[in-house]
Design brief:
- The complex is a heterodimer.
- In chain A, 77% of the residues lie in helices and 0% in strands.
- By secondary structure, chain A is an all-alpha fold.
- The longest helix of chain A is centred in the middle third of the chain and has 50 residues.
- Chain A starts with a helix and ends with a helix.
- Chain B is of the alpha+beta class.
- Chain B is built from 19 helices and 15 strands.
- In chain B, the strands form four sheets. A five-stranded antiparallel β-sheet of chain B has the order 5-4-8-7-6, sandwiched between helices.
- Chain B is rod-shaped and about 140 Å long.
- Classes of the chains: A mainly alpha, B alpha+beta.
- At the A-B interface, α1, α8 and α14 of A face α7, α8 and α9 of B.
Chain lengths: 512, 587
């Protein structure tokens, strides 16, 4: 391994460990562990959300997609951004008002029932772990490519780092690692884009002309229709992306880390601003890659296009810049997986251990202990899975995550907050039908059933890579039917609940 | 690459030595504690800017990938490239002084780099101010502490060279020289910069720690001073008190002068400028009045604030400390300094501490005095009440005497009148002359003698003493009364009481001795130690006398009670002989 790479790598590790040490001293209570005691400002939380959300797949993958597929790659990234509109308008503030630590808290604020909590906790756990494994696998592969170290070593390093952050520093360490990551990622992509522009003497038409030379698509590069030919497939993908984000537990629990609704709004605005600017810059970098590196070289280095950004950095600034970009990619990876570990931890230790197993009868100390132990266990298990599943289809797991979040979590969250006649049974049925439908449709789809290289070598029964367009309605319909067929036995004061969800004012408590 | 790293580290070493020497200069320490205003921002920018310029000239020059090692860089040819170390100073400026100082120092360093020239001068010039600004913002963002920890600095120090390299790429695109330069110097610069910044931060931390230690010492000093001020605070006369405190503070503190005032005028002044800062000057300055009114420590940073009439008065700055008593500012203590920058936060803290401690102590003293006064008034009222039995007995005696000895009766009547008049007067004075006290005792003795002529012999003996001896009124008489009622209770004949007043040098001994039953240990104990007891017996009178003696004349004047070897007992006390002029009413 090149010494320059090693130095940057060590520097990032040291920095994040310092943050963890600092956070560990402030992470003495459960509220600090789970939510940083609401101590973040809106802007800080927005940066952390962006850090949580922009995965290595976005940073490296999307640049590659744009370099290879042109406009479609950019369009793909837009889905990630637009989803925040939904989060901002419908979900963020009610989640902050209703919940305490976990997503289960939100639903149980309306249906205080153990079964509901079970389902929400399991759902959150599945989504977080399902999302974490591909992240770990992908980043293991990536770090192997960048730093030329063994796959298992890189997965072990990342796995142990994320576990250390969460076990010792809880939400505080996670948030600050994510903030640092956002700052580094944004500033480095910004400077890299400037370098791309200056490479073409600040002349955009020069750049575009070079892009057309560099890509086999030629003029078609700036037109849609290369990545996703089928409109159905595209709509389906966007549905899952846009609706899935609003159901991702690791994004939603971030709204507990600020102190009031105004800060919640500010954090969503900051996050979407950062993410928007980021994707514009990835577009520039994608163009730069197509122009400077060219299609053939890129495909030759790695067929997925994931090495676009590192190759570009090397071409523009030699080893030094490459080392820096690799370090950024590494930070991106650890920040995202740390966020996932904490969300899985919350689901397990707060919902399952504290509320279900111990019925809420645990001391502050026991809760913290349990949270740290479960964080450790989750980190360990995910790392082991990632070590074993080196050859798994990463895109399959990622799309599964978003589709499950969109078809099982989101209907329940939306109906809980907004639909008066929504019932407990509806919540359970909606959750389960969404989950089952997503898994079933994906299993029958071309990810698994594939003539060339699928797990099951045959023609897919269901011919969509992205089954969101079917499974999401199933989730919603399941919830609706469940509520209509099995309405609530006792009347719930929805008015009071709704006011609390929207304003945070608990009128029941005040009337007493 | 290794060579460059080593050379850069050597150069940084020299810079760190210089920086270390600077941190030893007292004025540099003052720099660390300054409030942020425009003037200080500019001064800080200049200081760090100059340091950055020095760092640039301590750098190395690279031509075509070769290092040209010079001792100092004075000029750079157009085909040469400077590897400047200025970013170290700029980052420190930003971290310590905030974004504006960083920016200012960066601009100064940038201008120097522009003049120096060479390949890449434009990027080098731009990166300095931007780094300063960003370092300042980063410092604010990550840490609320004044100085971030060295490890954090190690991390932050990695990025300025990266920024510089990226600037080079942005501003000199498709330039193989730049690419070569970055690959050659990028990593060494990252390493050396971050190490240098971390060490520098550690150095500043040490300086700040020293200041904290100084502050701890100052706290200790304040406590010592407060303790030492106690005797002066107990003085009755405000002028004496002020003088004592002024002298004490001037001795203990390193200030140019001390003055102590009451609400309107200067009571004491000690130190430089005492030739024209006279006692009795009225308090004029608005800042002093403000301190009096707001009860808060005020600081005068200029001659205008001090407003001395003498134009070449050496005092330029002052800390004005209000001393509170019962929530009112009763006086001001002022620390004067020759220069405004002699006032560091340590001094201000010390001043505040001393002010608080002295205020507390004067309050304690005031309340103690108040308590004493109340007690005294109470006791005097008690004494003013004449035992009715005594009055009836005496009237009976007089009635009897009218028949046998009218002259004697008349005499006793006059004595009774004297005795009563004296008792009525007791409540108005706390100390009287020994002469008057003796007359009182004599009157009492005569009355008693007349009553118990056959049972009791009272001798009153008085050596010649000074005329100005003071004694609490009605001190001796209760002792005599006690000797009669208690000591001679069971004695029917040959009772004997000796009252003697002796001059024993510095003190006058007054003793009352009887040949009665004497006290038992328990009773002696009661008289000497008891607080106010509910049982009213002979002990109470003695106890009161004891308390009054102690509270008015001090612990030395307390009552002593002795059992005599054969029978009877002796009660005596010693009062100061002569010049004591204390009078509680004066206060």
């Amino acid at each position: 391994m090149n010494f320059t790479y090693f130095l940057f790598f060590v520097c990032i590790v040291i920095c994040t460990l310092i943050i963890t040490y600092w956070a560990a001293k402030r992470s003495k209570t459960t509220i600090q562990f789970y939510t940083a005691a609401g101590s973040l400002t809106g802007v800080q939380n927005g940066m952390a959300i962006a850090g949580d959300y922009i995965s290595a797949a976005s940073f490296l993958g999307i640049i590659g997609q744009i370099a290879l597929n042109g406009f479609d790659g950019f369009l793909y990234s837009l889905g990630f951004l637009v989803s925040y509109l939904l989060v901002l308008l419908f979900v963020a503030e009610p989640v902050h008002h209703l919940g305490k630590y976990s997503l289960g808290d939100v639903i149980c604020a309306r249906f205080p029932n153990q079964n509901i909590r079970w389902i929400m906790a399991i759902g959150s756990l599945i989504i977080s772990v399902l999302y974490m494994i591909p992240q770990l696998v992908a980043s293991g592969l990536l770090i192997r490519l960048l730093l030329d170290i063994d796959y298992s070593v890189s997965v072990l390093i990342i796995g142990s780092l994320m576990t250390v952050y969460v076990v010792f520093g809880g939400m505080i360490a996670t948030s600050w690692v994510q903030i640092v990551k956002t700052v580094l990622l944004m500033s480095s992509t910004f400077l890299l884009s400037l370098i791309v522009f200056s490479y073409y003497k600040w002349n955009v038409s020069n750049l575009i002309a070079e892009v057309k030379v560099g890509t086999p698509l030629g003029d078609q590069f700036f037109l849609p229709g290369h990545l996703l030919q089928s409109p159905l497939e595209m709509i389906s993908l966007y549905l899952a992306l846009i609706l899935g984000t609003a159901g991702l537990p690791h994004i939603l629990i971030r709204f507990y880390t600020v102190k009031n609704a105004a800060e919640v709004r500010k954090s969503v605005l900051t996050a979407s601003g950062i993410i928007g600017v980021f994707y514009i810059m990835t577009f520039i970098l994608g163009l730069g890659t197509a122009a400077v590196i060219g299609y053939d070289t890129l495909i030759a280095a790695d067929s997925t296009g994931n090495l676009a950004a590192p190759l570009l950095a090397k071409a523009l600034g030699g080893d030094f810049l490459l080392a820096f970009v690799s370090a950024i990619a590494f930070t991106t990876v650890v920040a995202v997986v740390a966020g996932l570990v904490i969300s899985a931890t919350t689901a397990f230790s707060h919902d399952i251990y504290h509320h279900i197993i111990k019925k809420g009868n645990t001391t502050e100390k026991e809760q913290l202990r349990a949270a740290q132990l479960s964080a450790f266990a989750i980190g360990l298990i995910s790392t082991l899975f990632a070590l074993g599943l080196k050859d798994i289809n990463v895109t399959f797991l990622v799309s599964l995550t978003f589709i499950v979040a969109a078809s099982s979590n989101l209907p329940v969250i939306i109906f809980t907050i907004y639909w008066k006649r929504f019932s407990q049974a509806g919540a359970v049925i909606g959750m389960i039908s969404g989950l089952v439908a997503s898994i079933f449709l994906l299993a029958l789809g071309p990810h698994i059933m594939n003539v060339d290289n699928g797990w099951i070598l045959r023609e897919p029964i269901f011919n969509l890579f992205n089954p969101g367009i079917i499974s999401i309605p199933i989730g919603f319909l399941g919830a609706i039917f469940g509520s209509v067929l099995f309405p609530n036995k006792e009347a719930i004061d929805f008015e009071q609940f709704y006011i609390k969800a929207q304003t945070g004012i608990d009128i029941r408590r005040e009337a007493r | 690459m290794k060579d460059i790293t080593v050379i850069l580290l050597e150069r940084i070493g020299i810079l760190l030595i210089i920086a270390f020497v600077f941190t030893r200069i007292p004025n540099f320490k003052a720099l660390l504690y300054r409030e942020h205003n425009w003037k200080m921002t500019i001064i800080h920018s200049c200081v760090f800017g100059i340091f950055a310029i020095a760092s640039t000239h301590f750098g190395i020059v690279i031509v075509n990938g070769d290092i040209i090692s010079q001792h100092l860089i004075w000029s750079v040819e157009s085909n040469e490239m400077v590897v400047s170390l200025s970013l170290v100073a700029i980052v420190i400026a930003g971290l310590l002084g905030g974004p504006l100082v960083g920016l200012g120092a960066g601009i100064i360093a940038g201008i120097d780099l522009m003049i120096l020239g060479g390949i890449g001068w434009f990027a080098n010039m731009l990166v300095n101010p931007i780094t300063g600004l960003l370092a300042g913002l980063t410092g604010r963002f990550f840490s609320k502490a004044r100085v971030i920890s060295p490890i954090q600095a190690l991390f932050i120090g990695v990025f300025p060279p990266i920024l510089q390299m990226q600037f080079l790429f942005v501003l000199y695109p498709q330039n193989p020289t730049i690419l070569e330069f970055v690959n050659l110097t990028g990593l060494p610069l990252v390493l050396t910069n971050s190490i240098a910044i971390a060490i520098f931060t550690a150095m500043i931390k040490i300086v700040l720690q020293e200041q904290e230690n100084e502050a701890a010492l100052a706290t200790k000093q304040a406590l010592t001073i407060a303790e030492e001020a106690l005797p002066f605070l107990k003085r009755e006369s405000p002028v004496e008190r002020a003088e004592g405190i002024a002298n004490l503070l001037y001795e203990r503190l390193t200030v140019a002068a001390i003055s102590v005032t009451n609400q309107d005028e200067v009571l004491a002044f000690k130190g430089i400028g005492s030739d024209h800062h006279h006692l009795g000057q009225k308090i004029m300055t608005p800042i002093s009045k403000e301190a009096l009114k707001s009860k808060e420590v005020k600081i005068a940073y200029s001659k205008v604030d001090i407003a001395c009439e003498v134009p070449n008065c050496p005092l330029e700055a002052a800390i004005i400390i209000p001393i509170l008593e019962a929530n009112d500012t009763t006086s001001l203590i002022k620390f004067y300094f020759k220069k405004a920058h002699h006032i560091s936060p340590v001094e201000i803290e010390l001043a505040q501490g001393i002010g608080q401690l002295i205020s507390n102590q004067s309050q304690v003293i005031a309340s103690e005095n108040l308590k004493k006064n109340i007690l005294d008034a109470e006791l005097r009222n008690l004494q003013a009440q004449i035992n009715p039995h005594f009055l009836f007995n005496t009237l009976h005696l007089i009635a009897t005497l009218f028949r046998v000895d009218p002259l004697r009766a008349r005499h006793i009547t006059i004595q009774l009148a004297n005795f009563m008049r004296f008792n009525l007067g007791i409540a108005s004075e706390s100390l009287i002359t020994l002469e008057r006290e003796c007359e009182h005792v004599k009157a009492y003795v005569e009355i008693i003698q007349a009553r118990f002529a056959n049972r009791l012999q009272i001798n009153f003996e008085r050596e010649h003493t000074n005329s100005n001896i003071l004694i609490p009124p009605s001190t001796i008489q209760p002792l005599v009364e006690n000797a009669i009622e208690h000591g001679l209770k069971k004695v029917t004949t040959n009772g004997k009481i000796d009252i003697t007043i002796k001059d024993i040098g510095e003190r006058i001994e007054v003793s009352v001795q009887d040949n009665g039953v004497g006290f038992d240990e328990g009773e002696i104990d009661t008289i000497q130690k008891m607080r106010k007891s509910h049982k009213v017996d002979s002990g109470v009178g003695m106890y009161n006398v004891n308390q009054r003696l102690i509270s008015l004349l001090g612990e030395e004047a307390r009552l002593y009670i002795e059992r005599l070897p054969k029978r009877g007992s002796k009660v005596y006390f010693m009062i100061p002989n002569g010049s004591l002029r204390r009078n509680i009413n004066e206060n």
